[in-house]
Amino acid sequence: VSGEVPEVPVVSTKSGLLFERRLIETHISDYGKCPVTGEPLTIDDIVPIKTGKVVLKPKLLHTASIPGLLGTFQNEWDGLMLSNFALEQQLHTARQELSHALYQHDSACRVIARLKKERDEARQLLAEVERHIPAAPEAVTANAPLSNGKRAAGDEEMGPDAKKLCPGISADIITELTDCNAALSQKRKKRQIPETLASVDALGRFTQLSSHPLHKTNKPGICSMDILHSKDVIATGGFDATAVIFDRPSGQILSTLTGHSKKVTSVKFVGDSDLVLTASADKTVRVWRDSGDGQYACGHTLNDHSEEVRAVTVHATNKYFVSASLDSTWCFYDLSSGLCLAKVADDSEKVDYTAAAFHPDGLILGTGTSQSVVKIWDVKSQANVARFDGHTGEVTSISFSENGYFLATAAEDGVKLWDLRKLRNFRSFSSADANSVEFDPSGSYLGIAASDIRLYQTASVKAEWNLIKTLPDLSGTGKATCVKFGPDAQYVAVGSMDRNLRIFGLPGDEKANADDDSAQDS
Known about the structure:
four-stranded antiparallel beta sheet, innate immunity, 5 helices, spliceosome, about 35% strand, Pre-mRNA-processing factor 19, disordered C terminus, single chain, transferase, about 20% helix, alpha+beta, RING-Ubox_PRP19
């Protein structure tokens, strides 16, 4: 065990091996076995043997002289060098194996990424093909009276167990949304109120300039409205299942969009383009394009919702939009293809969406619900990041201020203003059964449509928001349904439960005062 001649030798009766007594006894007490053979061994198994007393330990011959010592040192050095060389070879081999493993891992990651991309593209193509597959003849026949010869709203409805594929919001789209957000945020810091903006005194002198009967008399009522400021064109959605494109300066109806089978709950222009979006209680969203002669044709009929669609809102890139429905989901669409990229439901609670609007910077989506809750979503992750409680009754309308700090929400109990920086309600306006709330594009004024129309001057969180003007609801129904500010707040457009679009502005403003006789019949 020690490599030396034993001073007190003992022999194992089992293996016949010779040991130093003190060493083997210590080993047996620690391990209970032979250090050489590994067999069980006890103190009783070792027998001492007698030897003659050696006074001097014999010296090895090769260490008895200096040349012998030098030879021993040389042998040990050679052994050390050989051992070091072997270790270096093992290290080199291990490095090569590690490099090869890393290369294989990198190649596998690239292959996986390529396969995922091909899978997403295949899903997108499959979804587009499914969307454009014509319906069965009997389905078309059943729905023909509702569509006036166009593709009916229910043609693409699928069974309860069938789900349309949504490829998701890709990394490229998220990068595009983020870049748009950064550009708009930077631009907003340098934003100045336009000199042509109507003054507070001007709004205080607003009165009705004109009234235009745009919708049918058998189903009167304007549900929604939007204004294309660059062309001063107004779009209205009615209870008569049509949307009307109206040129305000000339007082002429440019086009009537027919195709929905129930009331048009929301209408939106897409930037300065020739596209218009409409949502309807018939569970569909339609994308309309100007065919060039002033007439609009339906480019896409989207059937991704199973209940009434209450709102559409366009992203700042003008490439994507969101629809919100009473089926407890909101959908994120690619505008050019009409493809639903994501269909989002809140797993934490069931809510029915009644209003929706993008934040001016585009990375936040606000939604109102019939359960009186306002939810704020992160568009990139489709996660609910905040919620505002406090309303009573259905949230009918929401609007973000241009500065990006304030959110206005309307419900049965009135209008509330929320500070998005501190996520709290800082002011409330008691307007019973408020149907619509809208900031003007500059963020200087706020309009509320209820039993009358109220115009406020915006301010900070702590400052007072002054009431500028209260405009009466001249429809006789006692219910104004929507309000929008015209370019530079030079006029206010109001929709009510009758079929007329009313324009309020400064008396004598020739541009705003359209000739009522030139309005088209319903």
